[in-house]
Structure to design on (213 residues):
């Protein structure tokens, strides 16, 4: 997602003859970079958490978003919880083939004491994921027609997203550094506290909260 004076799909009312001017070409500004949003949608609470990174799209930033949700929202709502279920897409930085994703989740399980179960939507079915049509679709509507000129604008527009059914969203600008190219060897993968489920273990697995070291 580009940050700057770029056109954004949709319409927004302005006084006649006073349109918002945007750049002609959508070339990334090297001084600004891109916004990398990752979020959590809580089905039970109809609440969303979105972290907007500015560093790199990696497994680290994806898992960091989950950790931040737990620290800021999840732990208070579910103080007795011992398990966490994550429904994730099949691809991207949180894809089922990404070893770093599993390694980072193992660290999160150890840090929180939660047993983390992940179920991936099969390839080509990511739009079934409820986070798409119960959270990000409404965030996109709230952005329509507005240039996302800064990270602050993105955070404020996202945090102001609501629905008539009571959706609430919290967001923050994640300024952490998440190095690219994290390699997890076969030995390191085998050492993770990871239990694959009998049915499609490549898509469904659980990470226990013992130390991943």
């Amino acid at each position: 997602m580009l940050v700057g004076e770029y056109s954004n799909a949709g319409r927004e009312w302005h006084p006649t003859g006073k349109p918002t001017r945007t750049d002609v070409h959508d070339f990334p500004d090297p001084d600004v970079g891109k916004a990398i949003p990752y979020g959590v949608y809580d089905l039970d609470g109809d609440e969303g958490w979105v972290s907007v990174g500015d560093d790199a799209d990696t497994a680290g930033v994806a898992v960091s978003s989950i950790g931040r949700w737990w620290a800021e929202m999840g732990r208070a709502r579910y103080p007795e919880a011992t398990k966490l279920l994550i429904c994730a897409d099949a691809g991207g930085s949180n894809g089922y083939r990404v070893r770093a994703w599993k390694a980072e989740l193992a660290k999160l399980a150890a840090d929180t004491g939660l047993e983390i179960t992940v179920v991936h939507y099969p390839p080509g079915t990511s739009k079934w994921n409820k986070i798409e049509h119960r959270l990000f679709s409404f965030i996109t509507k709230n952005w329509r027609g507005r240039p996302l000129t800064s990270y602050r604008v993105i955070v404020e527009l996202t945090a102001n997203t609501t629905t008539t059914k009571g959706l609430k969203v919290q967001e923050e600008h994640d300024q952490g550094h998440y190095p690219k190219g994290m390699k997890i060897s076969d030995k390191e993968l085998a050492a993770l506290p990871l239990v694959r489920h009998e049915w499609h273990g490549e898509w469904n697995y659980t990470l226990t909260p013992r130390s991943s070291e």
About this structure: The radius of gyration is 19 Å. The chain is about 30% helix and 20% strand.
